[in-house]
Design brief:
This is Methylase. InterPro entries: DNA_methylase_N6_adenine_CS, N5-glutamine_MTase, SAM-dependent_MTases_sf, Small_mtfrase_dom. GO terms for molecular function: nucleic acid binding; protein-glutamine N-methyltransferase activity. Residues 13-22 have a biased composition (Basic and acidic residues). Pfam families: MTS. This protein is α/β, with parallel strands linked by helices. It folds into two domains: 6-156, no CATH class; 161-373, Rossmann fold. It has helices at residues 41-50, 60-76, 85-103, 125-132, 144-159, 183-190, 208-215, 228-240, 288-297, 314-318, 323-332, 358-363, and strands at residues 6-11, 14-20, 31-35, 52-56, 106-110, 140-143, 161-163, 168-170, 198-202, 220-225, 247-251, 260-265, 301-312, 335-343, 366-373. The strands form three sheets. It has a seven-stranded mixed β-sheet with strand order 11-10-9-12-13-15-14, sandwiched between helices. The chain has a six-stranded mixed β-sheet with strand order 1-2-6-5-4-3. Strands 7-8 form a two-stranded antiparallel ribbon. β10, α8 (228-240) and β11 (247-251) form a beta-alpha-beta unit. α1 (41-50) packs across α2 and α4 packs across α5. The radius of gyration is 23 Å and the shape is globular. The termini are far apart. The structure holds S-adenosylmethionine. S-adenosylmethionine is lined by residues 177, 179, 202-206, 208-209, 224-227, 230, 253-254, 266-268, 281, 289, 292. S-adenosylmethionine binds next to α7, β10 and α9.
């Protein structure tokens, strides 16, 4: 095992070192200065833009305000407009990653038990345990931005997301794809089931689709994921909903062993490189999961079984993939399309004309493709 990365910074009595935490797999900043309530937003912005991190010693709420002030300064910078949707997408990703780098430069020290020894600091111990696991006994340093993400995730996990089709709430864990945009769940709720005997749910995430199939009366469901956080999250949700016996959760790359009359998959839908490990639920480099699902499907369907591929055409509107490519991939996998259900996304960004990807978002359609082996 490689030892965890560390961060070293100068204190008045000499250099100090602590474990570096970054769920986005960002390397520890090389230049670090100590900052506190006297640090102005302009100097924080300048330092952060140059790649110098600010290790915070002041009031926690002031650090939050400083982060907001730096965010406003970044937002004031004029945005380059892309000539095509693909240009707009690439520029948007570039801007997002530059922003993430700059905003990740305000750092908060965490005690060995995840406590924060700063004035007006919230108690983030439970949020940290949920995201990082039990405290390891080392003091550490994390960006304020990541920490706020952890706090937000902890709130969502507590509160849950209402899933109308399920008549229940699903509680997403940190780093697990959250079904906040629930329209695809409605597609799975309304498409006629080919069988009530058995189904596979490939890449189950929070377990939301497995839960829905269980509610619809499918007697046995085997749900897979590769990600340990997703597996733990799905197990917890299904047990809470009373489907712990009906749904078996297994760690697998795509399919479990055997064949089923229904195999459902909602893969990440943007064929581009994720900027961090947390983006793997949305970004599927080289369409690896999509193609893996299509190419393995015929071997995991019973005769006359159906594969349900749930995928949005957002990537097509961005120019990252064409409809012809998808149809050719289906054909090449020995599958034919026996039906398709479509739904329009309801999420607020689809009507936000200031969003740089507005054109693609406004045209987006999510489909459930019913596939059979030829
Ligand atoms: C877009 S999310 C969908 C989650 C869930 N099915 C839903 O509809 O909310 C895709 C999921 O696939 C999982 N995944 C990615 N590659 C996988 C693979 N090769 N095998 C199994 N699961 C995978 C991810 O961890 C993630 O949970």
């Amino acid at each position: 095992m490689t030892s965890p990365a560390t961060l070293t910074w100068p204190e008045a009595d000499g250099p100090r070192t602590a474990r570096w935490r970054s769920e986005a797999a960002v390397p520890p900043p090389k230049r670090v200065v100590v900052a506190d309530d006297r640090t102005t937003a302009d100097s924080a912005y300048r330092l952060a833009s140059e790649g110098t991190a600010l290790l915070w010693h002041g009031d926690f709420q002031n650090a939050r305000q400083l982060l907001q002030a730096v965010t406003r300064r970044l937002e004031r910078k004029p945005r380059k407009q892309g000539a095509t949707p693909l240009d707009a997408f690439n520029l948007h990703r570039q801007t997002q990653s530059q922003r993430a780098r700059t905003l990740g430069m305000i750092l908060i020290p965490l005690d060995a038990d995840y406590g924060i020894a700063l004035r007006r600091a919230p108690d983030v111990r439970q949020a940290c345990i949920e995201a990082y696991g039990p405290a390891s006994g080392d003091a550490s340093v994390v960006s304020l931005r990541e920490l706020l993400g952890l706090i937000g995730a902890h709130e969502w996990r507590k509160k849950g997301v209402e899933i109308a089709a399920l008549g229940e709430r699903i509680h997403p864990h940190y780093g697990v794809f959250s079904p906040v945009r629930g329209e695809y769940v409605d597609l799975v709720a309304r498409t006629p089931l080919p069988s009530l005997e058995l189904a596979f749910d490939i890449g189950t995430g929070t377990g939301v689709l497995a839960a829905l199939l269980a509610k619809r009366g499918v007697r046995k469901i085997v749900a897979t994921d590769q990600d340990s956080r997703a597996l733990a999250c799905a197990r917890e949700n299904l047990a809470r909903l009373g489907y712990g016996e009906q749904v078996e959760i297994v760690q697998a790359d795509l399919f479990p062993d055997g064949r089923a009359p229904l195999v459902v998959c909602n893969p990440p839908w943007v064929p581009a490189r994720p900027a961090s490990p947390l983006e793997y639920a949305v970004y599927d480099p080289d369409s690896r999961m999509l193609l893996g699902f299509l190419n393995g499907l015929a071997n995991h369907l019973t005769p006359d079984g159906e594969g349900w591929l749930i995928i949005s055409d957002f990537a097509e509107h961005l120019g990252l993939r064409t409809r012809e490519w998808l149809l050719a991939a289906i054909d090449h996998a020995g599958l034919s399309v026996v039906g398709r259900e479509d739904i329009r996304p309801r999420h607020p960004k689809a009507s936000d004309q200031n969003d740089p990807l507005y054109v693609a978002r406004a045209a987006e359609l999510t489909s459930l493709w019913r596939l059979k082996a030829r």
